[in-house]
Specification:
Radius of gyration: 22 Å
Strand content: over 45%
Largest sheet: 14 strands, antiparallel, barrel
Shape: globular
Structural class: mainly beta
Helix content: under 10%
Order of helices and strands: HHEEEEEEEEEEEEEE
Number of strands: 14
C-alpha cells in the first residue's frame, strides 16, 4: 500500500507540474533544449476497468482504478508509469481490497523498431520484462518476455512469461494478427497438495487469431470492432502432485467494441466493452466440466496529451 500511495503522489506531482504554464521557455532556451534534451511529460490519464465472470460478484470480481503518466527524453527515449488498485465488489458481500499493480516502462526507439524494459509489481509476484515492437510497411508486431519471481507463499515456484503478436498484417482498414500467450511456464513443479490451484503446475498457454477494423471515423468520434478466436488453450498440471482435476477453456470467442471521443485537441475519453463466450473441458479426473459461461470487461478512461 505504501508503494501505491508513493507512486500515486509522484504521478499527481508530475501532472501538476506539467499543467502549470507559468514558466514558458524563451526562443534562446528552446534552442538550448534542442541540443540538450530534457525529460518532459507527454501525457497523463486515468481509467476504470470492471471485469466479471457469470456467477461471480454482481458488480465485479476485479474492479481496477489506475493513474498513469507518459514521459519522453529527447526523440528516442520514452517512459511510462502506471499505478493501479483492484477491489472485488458485490452488493451483498461488500467491497474487498484484492490486488495492486505498478508498471515502470522504458523504451529506446529506433527508425522501425523499439527495445524496452518493464518492471511489474503485484501482490503475489514481480516480473522483469524484455520487450520489442516493430513495423515494416504492412507488417508489424511485438514481443514481451519476462521472468516472474513469486512472492510470499512457499508453494509458489518462479515462472517464465511470454506474450506476443509476432506478426500482424494491415491492409486498408483491416488488421489480421496471430497472438500467443504463455501465462506461465513453471520453473519447477510443486510437491505440496495443500495448495490445490498451484500444486504440480506446469504451464498455461493460449493461441488466438485476431481481426480488427474501424467501424466509424469522424472529426471527434471513432468506433472500432475486434474479434478474437482462441482456437487453442492448454493448462497442464503434474497430477502426481495434485489431488483433483481441473477445467480449462476449450474454445473461446471474444468480441470487443471500442470507442474514443476527442473533447478538445488534447483531451480524449475512450472505452471498450469485451464479451467472451467460453466452452470448458475437464482434465485430470472424470468429473463433469464447468458449465459454459461468459466473461465481460468494461473500460472507460481519459487521456490528456501535452
Amino acid at each position: 500500500m505504501k508503494k501505491i500511495i508513493f507512486l500515486l503522489s509522484t504521478l499527481s506531482l508530475a501532472s501538476s507540474i506539467s499543467l502549470a504554464k507559468e514558466n514558458i521557455p524563451t526562443v534562446e532556451e528552446s534552442k538550448i533544449f534542442e541540443k540538450n534534451p530534457i525529460l518532459k511529460v507527454t501525457n497523463i490519464g486515468q481509467y476504470l476497468e470492471i471485469d466479471n465472470t457469470s456467477g461471480a460478484e454482481d458488480i465485479g470480481e476485479n474492479v481496477h482504478f489506475a493513474n498513469y503518466v507518459g514521459l519522453a527524453y529527447g526523440d528516442n527515449w520514452t517512459f511510462d508509469f502506471m499505478a493501479r488498485k483492484t477491489w472485488s465488489m458485490d452488493t451483498d458481500d461488500g467491497v474487498h481490497s484484492k490486488n495492486h499493480r505498478i508498471d515502470l516502462d522504458a523504451w529506446r526507439n529506433f527508425e522501425n523498431f523499439s527495445l524496452g524494459f518493464r518492471f511489474r509489481n503485484e501482490e503475489d509476484f514481480d516480473r522483469y520484462y524484455l520487450r520489442t515492437k516493430y513495423q515494416y510497411g504492412l507488417f508489424s508486431g511485438w514481443i514481451d518476455g519476462a521472468y516472474q519471481s513469486n512472492n510470499g507463499a512457499i508453494d509458489s515456484e518462479d515462472a517464465y512469461y511470454l506474450e506476443t503478436m509476432p506478426v500482424t498484417l494491415t491492409i486498408g482498414p483491416v488488421t489480421l494478427g496471430y497472438y500467443f500467450e504463455a501465462d506461465t511456464w513453471s520453473v519447477n513443479t510443486i510437491d505440496d497438495k495443500t495448495s490445490i490451484d498451484k500444486a504440480g503446475f506446469k504451464h498455461d498457454y493460449r493461441q488466438q487469431l485476431r481481426l480488427s477494423s474501424p467501424i466509424y471515423k469522424g472529426d471527434k468520434l471513432n468506433i472500432g470492432f475486434e474479434y478474437r478466436w482462441q482456437f487453442d488453450t492448454d493448462t497442464e498440471y503434474d497430477m502426481k502432485y495434485r489431488t483433483e482435476g481441473y477445467d480449462e477453456i476449450k474454445n473461446n470467442h471474444i468480441f470487443i467494441l471500442s470507442a474514443g471521443y476527442d473533447i478538445t485537441e488534447n483531451l480524449n475519453i475512450n472505452g471498450y466493452y469485451q464479451y467472451e463466450i467460453r466452452d470448458y473441458d475437464r482434465k485430470g479426473d472424470n468429473n463433469p466440466a464447468h458449465n459454459d459461461d461468459y466473461y465481460g470487461e468494461f473500460f472507460i478512461g481519459w487521456n490528456y496529451k501535452f
